[in-house]
Structures are given as C-alpha cells and as structure tokens.
UniProtKB/TrEMBL annotation, chain A:
It comes from Pseudorhizobium pelagicum. This is Diguanylate cyclase. GO terms for cellular component: plasma membrane. It is a multi-pass membrane protein. Keywords: Cell membrane, Membrane, Transmembrane, Transmembrane helix, Transport. The keyword Membrane applies. It holds the Pfam family BPD_transp_1_N.
Length: 316, 322
C-alpha cells in the first residue's frame, strides 16, 4: 500500500516538473514582452534602459537557466507577482481556488447522484421507453456547447424572468450565504448538464452488466424485492469502478468551469487563468495553470486510493 | 427474364436461390447501420448541412452579400427578403455568416480528427507493437494527458505569438494559417485517445498465431503492421474518429467563443457567439442560431458514431437501436 502510494506520488511529482517546464516555455511564447508590459507607453524608456532591465531581471539568459532560477524560487515558496493584480500570485490564486472548489463541489453533489439514479433507471429495461428518453437526454447533454447553454439560461432566467443574477458575485467574504447561493445556481446548472451526460452512460453500461451477474440472480432468487436488489446489491457493485471515471472527469470539469466562470463573471481559477492569458500576466498564467494541474493530479491520486480502499478485491 | 431462359437455367438457379445472397462484412454493417434510425437520420442531416454550408458561395454571390462587410446603418435588421435571418451587431448578414462559419467548424472537426488519427495510430501502433520502454513512456504520457484540463492548456496554446518562433507576421495572420493553427493545437492535446485505441488493438493482434506465422515466414514488422494490424484495428478507430469529430467541433467553438481560436472577421459558429453576451438584452436571437447549429451538428455526429459502434459490434442485434 505504502509502496504504491509512494510510487504514484513520485510519478505525480515528475509529471508536475515536466509540466512546469513545458508551461514555462509555452507561457514565454505568449505575445508581448514582460519589460515592455511593465512600462507600457513610457516615452523615457530608451533601448539601452530596456537592455539593462532585461539584464536585471535575467531575461537575456537562455530559457533553461531562467527556468532553473524560477524553479529554485518556486521551491522556496516564491511564485512571483501578478502584473494584473499587483499582488503575489498566491494571494490571487488562493481565493480563486476556493471559489472554484465551491462551484465544483456543488456540481458533484448534484451530478453524481442524478447520474446514478438516471443510469440505474435506464438500465432496468434496456431499449425501453425510459432508457431511450434518458439516452436521448445524455446524448443531448454531451453535445451541448456549455457556453451556449449558459447564454440561453441567462436569457431565460435573468433577462426574461428576472429570477436569478447573471453575474457579479461579490468577492468579499461578507457576501451572505444565500446571496452566494443565488449566484451559484445558474453556473452549477450548466456545469451539471456538462458533467452528467457521460456519467449517465457509464452508470447505465455498468448497471446492465451487473444486473446480469450471478449474485444479482441469487438475490432475486432469495425473494428480495426488485428495489432492494438494485439499491443494495447491483448499484453498490456497479459504482466502485465509477470512481475512476469520476477522477478522469475532473480535468474535463475544470475545463467546463473555466468557460462558465468566464461567462458568469466568477473569479474562480478558470476565469483567473483566462484573464491572465488575455492580459499577458506571465506569472499568474503559469502558476495558475500549474496549480490547476496539481489539483487535478491530486484528485486523481485520491480517487485511485479510494477505489482500492472500497473494493476489497484490490490490494495494493 | 423470358420463360425460355428460366427453363434452360432451372436446374442451377434452383439450388443456389435457396441460399441467402452472399454479403460482405461491409454490406452487413451497412444494413445494421441503416436499421439504427437515429443514426441514418443524423447522417442525412449532416450531409444536408454540409451541402447548405457549401452553398454559401453561390448564395452570397446571388444576393450580393459579403459576409465580412460591416454596415453600421443596417445593424440588427429583422429578417427580410435580402437578409433572411436579419443582420448582426455590425450589420452583417447572419445567414451567410452561419453558412461560412459552418464550413470552418466542420472543416476543423474533420481535418483535426484526420490528423489525430494519423498521429495517434502511428504512435499507438509503434508502442503496442514494439512494446518495452517506448510503450511505458507513451502510456504515462497518455495517462497524464487524459487527466489534464484541456481548455486552459488550449487557451495558452492559442495565445502563442507565432512570430516568436520565427513565423512572419503576414503568414501568421493568414486565414489558412489560423485554420491550421487551431487544427494543430487541438490535435496536439487530444491525440491520446486514438493512440490508446491503436495500442490496445496492436497488442491484441501482435501475439496472434497468424502474425507469428508471418514473422516466422520472414515478414518484417512493417509488413505485419500494414497487412495484419491496421485492418484489424480499423473498426474501433472509425467509431472513435466519429465521436472525436464531435468533440473537436465543441472544442473549436469553445476556443473561438473565448477569443483564442479562429478570430473574426472569419466567422465560425463559436466566435459568432462571442459578442452575444453583451447583446443579450438588445438582440437575444443572435445568441440562439449559432449555438443551436453547434448543438445539432455535434449531436448528429454523436448519433452517427453510436450507429457505427452498433453496426461494427458483432454482438449487437439488428433492429435494436441501442
């Protein structure tokens, strides 16, 4: 067990190092120049001065050396300043991560139970009316562009009905719980739609397979009611592998969160990365992307461990 | 046939006519595909859509409409004989832009999928067939790629300044280059699904007796791959490719919507929605058409993929749609 955890951890660390180098190179290729961005439109800046500044910040050095300096600083906890917010990047990303965490947690709390219920319902009579309707719904959910769904919901609930706010969640901590919840309803609705489609299809396939297993036949032969057979025997067994599917969907979910946060003006990780790239904030974009990668990798690791813990047939 | 002919040929035809007609595997698959009504309907829809999008040139020439010409005096026009779906916030014809945008979106979907299939198969088959360290590295890479958040990565890739890697300003902004760029960056982050499928297939085929027999008879690796592996992995790849087209169209439209994909004036269904949010109160209908087309197209592509999966699966029964 410990061996497995350590090997997975070391792999994750290796991936993070490789990703950080790749991202470092990529971010350096974004348009603009950090020195010119810093002193935008300052007429007194002569080419010599720019050269001196480059030397001062080490921008004249080869990229591998610059990466090395960045890495050394980062390992000591210095991730640099955000030029967009004029604050250390970590103080920008901390609240953003919390915001995205709330969004994703609420989404998972709704999408996972509804996927289980709908998938199990569909599996009861494959190709029946209920199955076809749920199948059509999951296909539609998979095929919908999430930004378009967001726009439609804003038109319906914010513009026409005026029930829910379309944006403008205050970032201050004194926003009341209910105010925050009201702002989260539409984004969570879109994200659930985005997330639930593939999950339903997965649960349905797993349930159909499980329902034909011998232990389900035994349970039925014992005279258990159909509800007990499905809820206590079939679902529990079909769902363990779902953890892996869920883990793999975190990256996808994060992508969805980026789009949705951007549309609904929520200052989460996604919108922060989007703004950083759009405004050429090199540091913020780099650390934001890296943090997103780390979070996704850790959730993957945790899901794998949970899988091993929940399935007694697997020993690590 | 005349009665005399039938008389003379009576003996041989009588025995043969009792056997069902010989069908190739592709005929059988096509028949199964045809029994999947939703897939057939979707295929028809897609063909019609492509034809309509290709009509953009003659249609706009006939009505004398330039899809990229702005006219601030004709903003937000309602549908009329000249502008069938009205005009947008810059006075451009919505219908003609939808048609041209469809060409771009569908072309990106097809070309990027083709590129991914080529790259994925090359890498996946190599890894599966050669095995060893190459295989181990590839699987680690694909594991990571599967878990990564793609859209943030694509945004960075989409914002890269091509002049910094030695491409001239003029060619970097040419429409062909913008098209190729989005195709390449999507293929770059999404080739791993294809590679995994190709690898799994290659490993299955690698140890079959007929491949070993071929090797013993002196066949080299390349011969085995071309003659034995590729035909055997073609069916899962066709199914995966179809579903990939849908995913690519969604990714492209998302990127273009966010402003990091194909940028105006070239219309795509994604970037036609970029301004929709600002205009949501004055012109909500502008937010409806492009998204509806993305939705219907991706849904149709996914149904065709589902139909292909059904048709290629020897265990599925004809006449049942799921």
């Amino acid at each position: 067990m410990l061996r497995y955890v350590l090997s997975r951890l070391s792999q994750a660390v290796l991936v993070i190092f490789v990703m950080s180098f790749l991202l470092f190179v990529l971010i350096g290729l974004m348009p603009g120049d950090p020195i010119e961005n810093m002193f935008e439109g300052n007429p007194s800046l002569t080419p010599e001065l720019i050269g001196q500044m480059r030397e001062l910040y080490g921008l004249d050095q080869p990229i591998t050396l610059r990466y090395w300096h960045w890495l050394m600083a980062a390992l000591q906890g210095d991730f640099g300043y955000s030029s967009l917010y004029s604050r250390p990047v970590l103080t920008v990303l901390g609240p953003a991560l919390l915001q995205t965490g709330k969004l994703l947690a609420l989404t998972l709390m709704i999408s996972v139970p509804s996927a289980i219920i709908l998938g199990a319902l569909a599996a009861r009579k494959p190709n029946g009316l209920v199955d076809s309707a749920i199948g059509l719904f999951s296909f539609a959910a998979i095929s919908m562009p999430n930004f378009w769904v967001s726009l439609l919901l804003i038109i319906l609930f914010s513009v026409n009905l005026g029930w829910l706010p379309a944006s403008g969640l205050p970032m201050t901590s004194d926003a009341s719980f209910w105010l925050e919840l009201r702002h989260l309803i539409l984004p969570v609705m879109v994200l659930v739609m985005f997330h639930v489609g593939p999950l339903i299809r997965y649960v349905r396939a797993a349930m159909i397979e499980t329902l034909s297993a011998d232990f389900v036949r035994t349970a039925r032969a014992k005279g258990l009611s159909e509800g007990t057979v499905i809820a206590r025997h079939a679902v529990r067994n079909a769902l363990i592998p779902m953890i892996t599917v869920l883990a793999l969907s975190f990256g996808h979910l994060f992508s969805g969160a980026l789009v949705i946060e951007t549309i609904f003006g929520m200052l989460g990780m996604g919108k922060t990365i989007y703004d950083a790239v759009g405004n050429i904030d090199f540091n913020l974009a780099l650390v934001g992307l890296l943090l997103a990668t780390v979070v996704v990798l850790i959730s993957n690791l945790l899901a794998d461990l949970a899988y091993a813990y929940l399935d007694p047939r697997i020993t690590l | 046939m005349t009665p005399t002919n039938q008389m003379t040929q009576a003996v041989p035809t009588l025995t043969l006519s009792h056997l069902p007609p010989v069908q190739s595997i592709w005929q059988l698959r096509f028949e199964k595909f045809r029994s999947h009504r939703l897939a057939m309907f979707s295929l028809g829809f897609l063909i019609l859509l492509i034809v309509i999008c290709l009509m953009a040139w003659p249609f706009s020439a006939l009505l004398g409409i330039d899809p990229n010409k702005t006219n601030l005096l004709y903003r937000f026009q309602p549908p009329s004989a000249e502008h069938w779906l009205g005009t947008d916030d810059l006075g451009r014809d919505v219908l003609v832009r939808l048609m041209f945008g469809g060409q771009v979106s569908i072309a990106v979907g097809l070309v990027a999928t083709l590129l991914m299939a080529i790259v994925g198969v090359a890498i996946g088959v190599t890894a599966g067939f050669v095995g060893g360290r190459i295989d181990a590295v590839l699987m680690r890479v694909t594991d990571c790629m599967l878990a990564l958040p793609l859209v943030p990565l694509l945004i960075v890739l989409g914002s890269i300044d091509l002049t910094k890697i030695g491409i001239s300003q003029a060619s970097a902004t040419s429409p062909l280059f913008v098209f190729l760029r989005i195709v390449i960056i999507i293929a770059l982050v999404d080739w791993t699904t294809m590679a995994r499928i190709a690898r799994a297939g290659a490993i299955q085929i690698r140890d079959r007796d007929y491949v070993r027999a071929a090797s013993v008879s002196g066949a080299n690796g390349r011969y085995n791959v071309i003659v034995h592996v590729l035909p055997n992995i073609s069916t899962p790849l066709i199914v995966a490719s179809t579903l990939t087209v849908g995913r690519v169209i969604l990714l492209e439209s998302t990127l273009s919507f966010l402003g990091f994909g194909i940028v105006p004036p070239t219309p795509t269904w994604g970037n036609m929605l970029t301004n929709a949010q600002q205009l949501i109160i004055s012109a909500p209908h502008l937010a409806v058409y492009p998204g509806l087309l993305i939705f219907l197209t991706v849904m149709a592509v996914n149904f065709v993929g589902d139909g292909a999966r059904f048709a290629f699966d020897p265990r599925s029964e004809s006449g049942k749609s799921h």
